[in-house]
Amino acid sequence: MKGLDDIVKIEKVAVIGAGVMGSGIAAHVANAGLPVTLLDIVPEEAENRNIITETAVQNMLKPVRMGSPTPLMHRKNARLITTGNIEDHLDALGDADLIVEVVLEKLEIKHDVFKKIDKVRKKNSLVASNTSTIPRNQLVRRMPKAFASDFIITHFFNPPRYLRLLEIVAGKEVSKKKIDALTEFCDLKLGKEVVICNDTPGFIGNRIGTYWTLIGMVEAVKMGLTVEEADAIMGRPIGAPKTGIFALGDVVGLDLIPHVTESMSSNLPKNDLYNIGVKEQNKLGIDKILSSMIADGYTGRKGKGGFYRLNSDSGKKVKEARNLKTGEYQTASKISLESIKTAKKGLRNLVEYDDKGGEYAWKVLSKTLTYAASLVPEITDNIVNVDLAMKNGFLWKKGPFEMLDDLGPSWFTSRISKEGIKVPELLEKVAEGNFYEEKGKDVLYFGTDGKYSKIRRPEGYLTATDVKRGQKPIFRNPSASLWDMDDNIILVEFHSKMNSMDPLIMEALSEAADQCESGNYSGVVIGNDGSNFSAGANLGLSSFVANVGAWEEAEKFVFGGQMAFMMLKHGDFPVVGASSGLAIGGGCEVLLACDAVQAHSESYIGLVEVGVGLVPAWGGCKEMITRWNNDPKQPRGPMATIMKIFQNVGTAKVATSAQEAKELHFLRQEDEITMNRARVLYEAKAKCLKMVENYEAPLPNEHFLPGPSGKAALDLAVDDLVKAGHATPHDIIVTKELSHILSGGDTDPTDTVSDDRILEMERKGIIKLMKTEGTMDRVEHMLTTGKPLRN
Predict the structure, then answer these.
(1) Where would a tag sit more exposed on the chain, N or C end, judged by fewer CB atoms within 10 A?
(2) Shortest CA distance to 462 belongs to which of 429, 482, 496, 485?
(3) Residues 150 and 91 in one domain
């Protein structure tokens, strides 16, 4: 960046503050492939003056919590982080294009840091603060005008790797060019949904989100609900994460709640609904409950527990919930209310249901949605930003105004009026209408001027919902649909439960192939808007088939899947997978059959069949053999590659990012990774169009495999695991079937094994295992508990 007119790229970043948030931001910048400098203070009497930042980088390689991926998408990304301290290495900020401050939420500390930054930063570098509560006008007060013209609030949500929301607050003195440069960087490089906010306390997400949790606690205490009841209602039934209200507090950290409440409260007018809620909270003694818990070390998941805890006194972990009246813990109850069941029919059904669940849902949502409607245009210029903030920051399925449309704005207005709640001006304006309308392919939103305007999104955003809008499917069955993406490209969308694979999905894939082979279309993209690309084969169907002994149907299911995937792989048209979330088992095998994959960075890919007592049978073994044998970095000879595959598939290893998936060969090195989820389908389609021009289908492969001697070596490795207590009796049965397939069966090492022969062994292997009691026990246990059985 040479000067004001050349600000188009951010190529080097510095982060000051290596706490949970600062280190998370630094890790995510490294995930994007950019060099980042991480600085913090020098602790008193520290022998290692960089101990804080060096420890932070070490922690980036550890899961945030048990079973979750690490802040770094790949361990090699740590090489992009340079550590230091603000006393010895402040000059390192001199070549940074973006400097992000992530220190304590105290104004005097931030001002001190800003003065230090301003002395060493280069001209026109951007300075950002990750403050969550302090208004920008206070942060730039007493700072030079040149500093203010380069200063922007960038409010990341924690953890930065996973939560897509990034709120930006920029003053009038910041040029549009600088705001656009930062927005583009955060969108394309960091994968963020960037929302422009006004300079108000809490911005958008925290202003509404913390009010929701505040009112959620207040109404729960007033109604005498248990924490389990409140969370059961205020979670999935309203389209929020299952943590609901109280468990969300445990995740965030109960010790942070008083600080956020105080900061918000002191910066808002006394008559703001937020402060009215705080008064009610204190009157009910909720503030004292929190203070007592914090003092006793019950700060949430990072402490001894919070509103929930795991008790291991009996030798077995038992989830317990806190009694809000007595402060005692008791075994957490599983809540069953009719209102929760009826919520599946829609939000209106929930809030109108006559039980305590329906009453609680209405009391919290009526106040929360009213508050949200009253804040536009104070906190942002339009309702779209509010909905984006709540969906991407608090992971609501729908934003407040989308929820109001579900309820019916006029119905909602009428009901709150009868209950004496003041109706916000925006609700009065929309009257009998809705906040959103569809017009052909466009979506319009209701503005503060009383008119509808087209929603304008960044170029390159495309979702399955966008593709489907205004058209009927080319083909549809209960599990999958085919859609016209324009430019002669078909979108195959899975919509079964968890996008699990079943015969109907195979039917849809075959139909897509037929459409291309007949000349109606030129290429195929496989993708969807779900949280997961595909969670694998439908285990419920597999269990049913096995229990009734319908082995002919089972063989048809397996063979049909192989044929569908082979049509995708060897058809005379390109197929591009657009992955995001889980792509495991059969979902992984779909991607392996594609000519290319455009993967969201958060793609978790793996062949996990062994965990339920099965083996990959839709070409997973075949494709792994091909890919590992074609890796020039692997030692020559069949045994080295087969052992690597056996280790990965035999332990049901899942890549925890798209970057790691490349290392495990679930993705090819040439497959591209998209950081922003909203851009995956657009880029997958662009890739497919590019491939159409000179497409040549790949030919079937012939493989050199070690045969019986190779199988014996693999089985010996399993025997060693058994002796060490790391493998169970049924593991032996399953892995012996896997070793048989990977080694090529009874082949001679000097002969080649065809793709068809490996597919045949996959088919026979999976059917053989389905007939064993141990495998069926694993399948049933997974269906019942969601966890693997070690039998």
Answers:
(1) C
(2) 485
(3) yes
